[in-house]
Amino acid sequence: MQELIDKLKAEANLNDDQALKAVEAVKNYIIEKFPMLEGAVANLFGQS
After folding, report:
1. Distance between CA 44 and CA 34 in Å, rounded?
2. Contact, 31 vs 38, CB < 8 A?
3. In which element (H, E) is residue 29 found?
4. Domain spans of the chain, in order of start
5. How far apart are CA 22 and CA 32, in angstroms?
6. Cβ proximity of 9 and 16 under 8 Å
C-alpha cells in the first residue's frame, strides 16, 4: 500500500495524510460495492 501512497503523493501532489485517506476511501468503496472481494482487497491494500 505504501507504493500507492507514494505514487499519489508524487503524481497528485498530495501530502501523507491526503494520500492515505484517498487510498482508504478507494479501498472502502471497493469493499462496499463488491463485498465478495473483501479478502482480495485486504490482501492487495494490506490490513490497516
Report:
1. 14
2. yes
3. helix 16-33
4. 2-45
5. 15
6. yes
Cell numbers of 12, please?
Answer: 497528485
* 43, amino acid identity: N
Q: What is the pTM of this model?
A: 0.81
Q: All 3 cell numbers of residue 43?
A: 490482501
Which pLDDT tens digit goes with each residue over 1-48? 899 999 999 999 999 999 999 999 999 999 999 999 999 998 988 764
| Nine cell digits for residue 11 | 503524481
Query: How far is it, in rounded angstroms, from Cα 8 to Cα 24?
Result: 12
Distance, in Å, from the CA atom of 47 to the CA atom of 27, rounded to the nearest integer, reads 11
The C-alpha angle 5, 20, 43, rounded to 5 degrees, equals: 70
